[in-house]
Amino acid sequence: MKVLVLFGSPRKKHTYELTKAFIEGLEKDTEVEFIDTPKLNISHCMGCNYCLKEMKCFIKDDMEDILNKIEEADIIVLSSPVYFGTVTSYLKVLIDRCQPLYNKRFVLKVEDKVKKKGFLIFTAGGKNKRMIDSMNLVAKFFMLSCGAELVDTIYCLNTDDNGLDKEVLQRAHMSAKSIL
Ligand SMILES: Cc1cc2nc3c(=O)[nH]c(=O)nc-3n(C[C@H](O)[C@H](O)[C@H](O)COP(=O)(O)O)c2cc1C
């Protein structure tokens, strides 16, 4: 089983700790690839629609590799702090470049024989749950484009005042444990 973690924080703090708790809950023989997206070189989508005809992107950068990794993964984990009501820009740039995956499934209508599983891991500095709802809109659409069925959303609010609570770390661990 291949797990691809797309990690979107420029810091190794709250979101990282929560993601680590999830990874530690995975079965020992699981192949986990952790992608530190702030370290990647990914250009912005230019909306040229090349991918509508060719089903691939003409831009040559780290995204070529990421698109292959997404297609090969059994489980995709999208992990991000809330930045201005959505995922960080590192992840948003990556998500926008997933248009070839969207086209494959929703324009060419290529059906996935096996559905991937999707997990979301979010942290927010404030207490407002609507931040997570807002993240979910982008993240669910991303999972759909990857051919992944969303299994669980693990999140922690109010990190700026309280940090991560033990319960949410335990929840992340148990969520990974529940994967068959
Ligand atoms: C640029 C920026 C924008 C942020 N925007 C929000 C926001 O819209 N809503 C919120 O609740 N917290 C916001 N925060 C707080 C972070 O979501 C919070 O501190 C998060 O847990 C940081 O995760 P990290 O420790 O993994 O970097 C923002 C933080 C930064 C740096």
From TrEMBL:
InterPro entries for the chain: Flavoprotein-like_sf, FMN_Rdtase-like_dom, ISF_SsuE-like
Keywords: Flavoprotein, FMN
Domain of life (superkingdom): Bacteria
Database matches in SUPFAM superfamilies: Flavoproteins
GO terms, molecular function: oxidoreductase activity
Gene3D superfamilies, per database record: 3.40.50.360
Domain NADPH-dependent FMN reductase-like, residue spans: 1-130
Keyword Flavoprotein recorded: yes
Pfam families: FMN_red
Signal peptide location: none
Transcription found in the keyword field: no
Name of the protein in question: NADPH-dependent FMN reductase
Lineage: Bacteria, Bacillati, Bacillota, Clostridia, Eubacteriales
